[in-house]
Amino acid sequence: MTVPLTGTGTPLRTSTAVVVVVALALALFSLSTVETLPVGLLPLIADDLGVSRASAGRLVTGYGIVVAVASVPLTRLVRRVPRRTLLCALLALFVMANLVSAAAPGYWVLLAARVTVALTHSVFWSVIASTATALFAPEVRGRVVAGLFSGLSLASVVGVPAGTWLGQQTGWRIPFVVMSGFGFLALVAVAVLLPSGAGEEGSGAAGAEPSRRRFLVLMAATALVICGVFTGYTYITVFLTDVTGLPQSAVAPLLLGSGIAGIAGTALAGARVDRRPRGTMALAVALLTATMFGLCLLGDRSVAAVCLVALLGFAMSAMTTALQSRILHVAPGSTEIASAVGSSVFNVGIACGSLVGGLLLPTGLGVRGAVLVGGVLAVGGLAVLLSESWVVRQGERRAAVRGGVPDLSA
């Protein structure tokens, strides 16, 4: 069986298209692991470089700020670059920047290397979903996104926990070398297998049901929810050791369990999102909100904390899959620009969350208070998400009052 590629005229075998998605998922695995690797290695990095834990946490904050600022303008800048050429260049830069991270003699060199990786992330995240979905029929978009985002879930299952364990055994630098190796494998696979014109047109190029209002509501909800989650999650290692009372050696296995739950979340969301896109997103956000409050209330009980960290991984992966699928569905214009906006908003949430958590950490509220504040922010995000239909109806009413001209942005 073959899949026609719009713009190239060359059919692509379905089996080859699946292998391409696997290669892109491997690239996403490497990128996503590096993005959150400092969460598990935060105490080691802080001690080795002679900085505070809050400063080490800003390695996550700075990364998020760069992605938030750079995603849309960089995606617009490279929109005419062939996707295979672009992805190969991005992966080559990723490999080199992580080798610099591993060799960094001090905090500022490490921060500069992470800024470089973040610039790679800014474009990669924006184009990867449309590139992958363009290889398949539109009706299986959700399942393709779920397959692609299995790399994101595996980053939680294998990447961050294994990187945390490896860093504890050999030093925090070695995991960055390993991620460079995986990035190189992805680079070779993409260079060999991805057709030269893939992703530039086709089913991934435009939203299935474009709606400016629904997209804006989705972005506002995402910003609040992600900010809330990362207000606490950035410092989950500190929470588990200081509040739950677990030894540092237990953190990696717990993150592994959370990642395994994340695979289940990705699979379940992928199975549901093509039929119930809004409901899948709302349920995932509701679970995230409940988990944050659960950690605040029951985080000092080890069994409850273990279960809640697993539930956090499940809900986060389900939400991420549902979010990307929803972006591809309601994008008011190019899905690549919409994905860039989504990536920016997501990382604004990460940056703001890690910053808020870092500010709360040395206060009387501490890390437990950070989780509570995160839960409150997530409630706000859920409320915004549930208001989507109301917002659309209000827009339609205003359009009718202005003269009955159809509002195509609704």
| Residues in helices, as a percent range | over 70%
Shape verdict: globular
What is the helix/strand order? EEHHHHHHHHHHHHHHH
Unreliable sequence segments: 6-11
Keywords: Cell membrane, Membrane, Transmembrane, Transmembrane helix
Domain Major facilitator superfamily (MFS) profile: 18-392
Organism: Streptomyces lavenduligriseus
Subcellular location: Cell membrane
Explain how this protein is built.
This protein has 15 helices and 2 strands. It has helices at 14-49, 53-77, 83-103, 107-133, 141-148, 150-170, 174-193, 212-233, 236-242, 251-273, 277-298, 302-330, 335-360, 366-386, 388-401, and strands at residues 2-4, 11-13. A two-stranded antiparallel ribbon has the order 1-2. Helix 2 (53-77) runs antiparallel to helix 13 (335-360), helix 6 (150-170) runs antiparallel to helix 7 (174-193) and helix 13 runs antiparallel to helix 14 (366-386). It is found in: Cell membrane. This is MFS transporter. Residues 18-392 form the Major facilitator superfamily (MFS) profile domain.
Write a short abstract of this structure.
This protein has helices spanning 14-49, 53-77, 83-103, 107-133, 141-148, 150-170, 174-193, 212-233, 236-242, 251-273, 277-298, 302-330, 335-360, 366-386, 388-401; strands at residues 2-4, 11-13. It is mainly α and 410 residues long.
